[in-house]
């Protein structure tokens, strides 16, 4: 009778290495999906008529005062939607925007940077005030109730998705684009937020000069 050699069992270190490799591949695949989804979302927005992006809004600043688009009449605004519990993209983006505007000098002072929270449950005016103090005093933080925020998200075509965590906390996936509005609150341009501060300054200058 023909005998077959026994298959050797994989040792514990080898099995652990395989598990690590599989986990790494899964994480890389997930990151790739998110990057492709973000690029697709940006292309989708670019394909929309510019007049269909942006519009009126009514929210509250970090002092609890009501703010609308009319408060910025005659000034460019750069709107970014995010939230204070964001662990990476939002703080990096706010820092990049602040640095880009500084690099533009007098031209950058034409632009009012605005951070609009997509997390009405946690981002009160007081929370927003403390959070934005870490970045630039120029950034205006706006927040509001879910009912007040909903039409703003719709008019800017911002999508959000809440992801609950085991520790009862949650994260929010959201559209990450810098919307540059002109003095009449009409869309002047959209800038990807993964640029360096240098490139973002170039992009902002291009938008300002063509309008």
UniProtKB/TrEMBL annotation:
<dbReference type="Pfam" id="PF02630">
    <property type="entry name" value="SCO1-SenC"/>
</dbReference>
<comment type="similarity">
    <text>Belongs to the SCO1/2 family.</text>
</comment>
<dbReference type="InterPro" id="IPR003782">
    <property type="entry name" value="SCO1/SenC"/>
</dbReference>
<protein>
    <submittedName>
        <fullName>SCO family protein</fullName>
    </submittedName>
</protein>
<dbReference type="InterPro" id="IPR036249">
    <property type="entry name" value="Thioredoxin-like_sf"/>
</dbReference>
């Amino acid at each position: 009778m023909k005998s077959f050699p026994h298959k050797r069992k994989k040792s514990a270190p080898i099995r652990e290495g395989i598990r690590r490799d599989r986990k790494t591949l899964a994480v890389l695949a997930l990151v790739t999906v998110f990057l492709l989804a973000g690029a697709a979302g940006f292309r989708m927005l670019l394909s929309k008529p510019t007049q269909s992006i942006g519009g009126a809004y009514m929210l509250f600043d970090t002092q609890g005062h009501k703010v609308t688009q009319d408060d910025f009449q005659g000034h460019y605004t750069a709107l970014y939607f995010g939230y204070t519990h964001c662990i990476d993209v939002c703080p990096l983006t706010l820092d990049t925007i602040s640095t880009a505007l500084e690099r533009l000098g007098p031209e950058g002072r034409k632009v009012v940077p605005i951070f609009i929270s997509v997390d009405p449950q946690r981002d009160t005016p007081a929370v927003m005030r403390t959070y934005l103090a870490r970045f630039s005093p120029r950034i205006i933080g706006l927040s509001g109730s879910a009912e007040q925020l909903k039409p703003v998200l719709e008019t800017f075509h911002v999508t959000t998705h809440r992801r609950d965590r085991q520790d009862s906390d949650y994260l929010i996936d959201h559209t990450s684009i810098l919307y540059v509005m002109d003095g009449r609150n009409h869309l002047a341009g959209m800038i990807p937020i993964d640029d360096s501060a240098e490139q973002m300054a170039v992009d902002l200058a291009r938008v300002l000069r063509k309008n």
